[in-house]
Amino acid sequence: FRDGAFDAVVFNPPYLPADPDAARDDWMEVALTGGETGRAVVEAFLDDVGRVLAPGGFALVLVSTLTGVEEVVAYAAEREFSAGGARSRR
Q: Using one digit for the tens of pLDDT, what is the confidence trace for 4-49?
């Protein structure tokens, strides 16, 4: 997508921590697993979504308490996002 293309981005990523006992051929397990901590896909999204947001744009991301909401909020803050607010653009 081009830079600044979206006013809003909504993302429901695979966000659950990997279950080491789950079968990897179970499609539901694969669809819901976001890596060891559950944050791999969420963090990759937060690394890149700022580029496609228009000035004043925002992103809504669904995560689980099992993923570590505080850790996601801290990671987002490092990328100039805030929980419950719009991303500030320079």
A: 999 999 999 988 888 777 766 777 777 888 888 889 999 999 999 9
Q: How far apart are CA 21 and CA 14, in angstroms?
A: 18
Nearest in space to 18 (alpha carbons), one of 42, 35, 41: 35
pTM for the whole structure: 0.81
Query: Token digits for 34?
Result: 């976001």
Strand ranges, E, within the chain: 6-11, 53-61
Which of 11, 89, 10 is CA-nearest to residue 50? 89
Please provide residue 11's backbone torsions phi and psi, each rounded to the nearest 5 degrees: -135, 125
Distance CA 19, CA 65 (A): 15
On the 0-12 / 13-18 / 19+ scale of CB atoms within 10 A, 11 is: middle
